[in-house]
Specification:
This protein is an alpha+beta fold. The chain has three helices and three strands. The two termini are 19 Å apart.
Length: 87
């Protein structure tokens, strides 16, 4: 799996700041057994929904808190529990 980058957290927090949107993030991934074969088996994995806390939103408002909040957010998303569904 490719590492999750800071843009995910920045977009999430930007939507909250600009529009007041309370959303949840769900990490998803897809892996093919034979990626070049039509109708090959694929595994789709979804993480548990995650939402930042009000404390995170408050800390994000300070310049020194932004990096900390985003790094914590990325750590949580990277370690999220995945459920597996074969299609």
């Amino acid at each position: 799996m490719l590492p999750i980058k800071a843009g995910v957290g920045i977009i999430y927090m930007g939507a909250f700041e600009k529009y007041g949107v309370e959303s949840k993030i769900v990490v998803a991934g897809i892996n093919y057994f034979k990626g070049h074969k039509f109708r090959s088996t694929a595994v789709v994995e979804f993480g548990l929904p995650y939402e930042m806390t009000q404390d995170d939103h408050r800390r994000y408002q300070t310049p020194e808190g932004k990096k900390e909040v985003i790094n914590n957010f990325l750590d949580i998303l990277s370690k999220g529990n995945l459920t597996r569904q074969t299609v």
